[in-house]
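re: the backbone from monday

yeah here it is again, tokenized this time
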């Protein structure tokens, strides 16, 4: 057995990425609308803090110049342009669902072939629920890892027994955790995909290949067959996860398009009102040393940025997942996983 091989390598995305729990929580787990609110609020606070410290005071500047009109006229252009971009993204996503009858039939045929293979793998009809679909594949994977461990339990090669036992523990332990997370998870939320990302199938495929090669002369024909069966189950999880990821990306981009269109209407209204009606004398006075005009302009500016903040919050999650799932095969792209 190679002494530098870690049979029970890190399984979760956080462990493999080598990044802080807080950072990944913000990028992946936190609700996107909540994150949008946090980002929008941060813009408001930053605006008020910076503008309140200006000299001459902001109220004097807006009284003598067309600061408000210029600012919010520009924001109207930005909102309209951004909304057009969102519509383009939505059309791109929906274009994948459109096509002639022949293409749709081929798409259906490929999907049914995959379901037939899964049915043969799990020995039961392929589930229609994405979370249950992944759970069934993981269940078979754990069963085959246990069968491999039982098969080599009586062998005289201590190194083989030790390595397979540690490997089986790693597989079964990882499967149990991910299956628990998938239990009851509803597609449309990020829960299904996040749980799937925590099963390190690619490293496990490599370990199966390495054990099969290193102990080729020690393993019996039946044991080689058990390794092949385990590799088949692990290899099926890869495209299954990628399919769920693709569906989630499409779902999230459609949600994003809808939310930005919803947010664009009040943002345009606020920008229009600010550009046409508000000037330096519209909101006189101050509270806690802060001029009311500063608070109003800051709040309106934050509202007009809400569609962009929605775009940022959704793209942060989508791009983070995409970066960490570039390779479907056993290729390690990050130094922390080497």
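seq for it, each position gets an aa:
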């Amino acid at each position: 057995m190679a002494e530098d091989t870690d049979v029970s390598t890190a399984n979760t995305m956080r462990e493999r990425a080598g990044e802080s729990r807080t950072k990944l929580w913000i990028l992946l787990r936190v609700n996107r609308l909540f994150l949008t609110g946090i980002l929008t609020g941060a813009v408001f606070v930053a605006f008020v803090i910076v503008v309140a410290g200006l000299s001459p005071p902001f109220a004097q500047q807006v009284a003598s110049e067309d600061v408000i009109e210029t600012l919010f006229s520009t924001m109207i252009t930005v909102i309209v342009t951004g909304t057009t971009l969102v519509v383009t993204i939505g059309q791109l996503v929906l274009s994948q669902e459109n096509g002639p009858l022949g293409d749709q039939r081929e798409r259906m045929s490929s999907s049914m072939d995959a379901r037939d293979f899964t049915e043969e793998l799990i020995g039961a009809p392929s589930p229609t629920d994405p979370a249950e679909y992944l759970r069934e594949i993981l269940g078979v994977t754990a069963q085959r890892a246990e069968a491999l461990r039982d098969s080599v339990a009586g062998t005289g090669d201590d190194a083989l027994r030790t390595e397979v036992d540690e490997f089986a523990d790693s597989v079964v332990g990882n499967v149990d955790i991910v299956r628990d997370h998938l239990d009851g998870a509803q597609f449309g939320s990020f829960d299904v995909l996040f749980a799937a990302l925590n099963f390190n199938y690619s490293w496990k495929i490599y370990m199966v290949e390495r054990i099969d090669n290193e102990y080729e002369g020690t393993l019996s024909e039946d044991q080689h067959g058990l390794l092949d069966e385990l590799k088949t189950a692990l290899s099926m999880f890869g495209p299954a996860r990628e399919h769920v990821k693709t569906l989630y990306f499409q779902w999230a981009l459609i949600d994003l398009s809808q939310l930005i269109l919803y947010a664009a209407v009040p943002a345009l209204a606020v920008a229009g009102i600010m550009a046409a009606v508000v000037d330096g004398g519209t909101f006189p006075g101050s509270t806690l040393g802060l001029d009311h005009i500063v608070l109003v302009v800051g709040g309106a500016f934050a509202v007009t940025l809400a569609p962009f903040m929605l775009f940022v919050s959704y793209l942060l999650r989508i791009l983070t997942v995409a970066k960490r799932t570039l390779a479907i095969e056993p290729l390690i792209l990050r130094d922390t996983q080497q």
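Strands lie at 286-287, 290-291. The chain has a mean pLDDT of 87.
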